[in-house]
Amino acid sequence: MPEARVNGVTLSYELAGREDGPVLMFSNSLGTDRGMWDGQVEAFGAAWRILRYDTRGHGGSELTEGPYTADLLADDAIALMD
Q1: Helix, strand, or coil (residue 79)
Q2: For 54, phi and psi rounded to 5 degrees?
Q3: Could you tell me the pTM of the whole model?
């Protein structure tokens, strides 16, 4: 899977769906990985470009020392979109 170094962490992500579609981003909940969105990729992939990623410390993304805050996780998502 592709990885991106953003906000001081390496995040694992996946792009799927319509290549020229608007981007729809999915982030996993705590204790899961981006696989929780498999059904949505199928449902939305014909119309959207789907960006799924493993949140810091989950799935294939790097585990860094905490604490993790909502602001930190939001900064990760914004940096990945950039």
Answers
A1: helix
A2: -90, 120
A3: 0.90
Residue located via tokens 């001081």: 8
* Chain mean position to CA 67: 19
- Token pair of 21 as six digits: 């579609």
pLDDT tens-digit readout, 1-58: 899 999 999 999 999 999 999 999 999 998 999 999 999 999 999 999 999 999 999 9
Cα-flanking dihedrals φ and ψ of residue 46, to 5°? Answer: -70, -25
Spatial distance between the Cα atoms of 45 and 67, rounded to a whole number of angstroms: 34
Q: Residue type for 56, please?
A: R
Q: What is the DSSP string of 1-26?
A: --EEEETTEEEEEEEEE-TTSPEEEE
Residue in the structure block whose two tokens are 């929780």: 36
**3 state SS of 50:** strand
Using the structure block, give the residue that is written with the tokens 């909502």.
Answer: 70
